[in-house]
Fold this sequence. Notes:
Layout: H1 2-17, E1 23-29, H2 36-43, H3 46-49, E2 52-58, H4 65-70, E3 76-77, H5 81-89, E4 94-102, H6 105-110, E5 112-116, E6 131-134, H7 140-151, E7 160-163, H8 169-175, E8 180-183, H9 186-194, E9 197-199, E10 212-219, H10 220-225, H11 227-246, H12 248-259, H13 263-267, E11 273-274, H14 280-292
Parallel strand pairs: 1-2, 1-3, 6-7, 6-8
Antiparallel strand pairs: 4-10, 4-11, 5-8, 5-9
Helix pairs in contact: 2-11, 2-12, 8-9, 11-12
Amino acid sequence: xxHLAFALTGGLMLALSTPALAQKIxxxxxxxxxxxxxxxxxxxxxxEKHGLDVEMTRIALNSxxxxxxxxxxxxxxxxxxxxFLQAVDGGLDLVAVAGxxxxxxxxxxxxxxxxxxxxxxxxxxxxxxxxVGVPGFGAYxxxxxNRYLMAGGVDPAQVNMVETSxxxxxxxxxxxxxxxxxxxxxxxxxxxxxxxxHLGPRFVAELGxxxxxxxxxxxxxxxxxxxxxxxxxxxxxxxxxxxAASDREVVIASVAKFTEQNPDLVRATPPSKYVAxxxxxxxxxxxxxxxxxGLLQGSVxxxxxxxxAP
Length: 310
């Protein structure tokens, strides 16, 4: 009996001293710096500290993220605001669980059209009849490029746009498959450093804005079934955003690792601004812009789409 009591006591002590298994969460983002806070939270052990086991996956096109959430291939993804709103408008029951990157002066300057050498494009009207690669139809850059064209008196239908993932942009410029790409982040530096393209219009900076670029989203079903995991994720992202604001080198290291880019190219890229908190005003800005472009069929209430932080 003494041996049994000792075994039971020892087993209880072992159970009490063994930490609970971290909850597994798969997070999907494209090869850009916009999900930098999740990258940092993985590399710096912030997710682990909050009891989460997060695995990040690169997604080729931003428009692939909502279907991946719906099919349970991902628990959380980083869609652009426009992709998220179009998915919700189309009937997908998604919610925003945390903020990621927002538009600001530096990234607005860095989101540009890169023109293939030998092609001249200086204004919106010069894009008429040209073939332009965009990183996902309905994605942030695509919508803002349309906004630029329309402000310049050009119907976007007059431009031949094709979906082109960030990693493939240097190749499609080099081979002449497109006349230009609408891009941002380290991809721009890769093209410029290769000597096959040059800077064209800074189409976002010309019009400005401070709305969210991307945020972290999940299905409503998953978020409601996992409120503790959502709260821990929000706390970790807020901590990573604070670290990113104070240490640029941490951002560079994590972005370079996830995107498989040279750190010097990431360093030469305008820094992203990360804000963990989401507001209905930011989503409202996108709703108005997309409605003007005829990209939404119904009425979307931003107040029902944000999971509040604890």
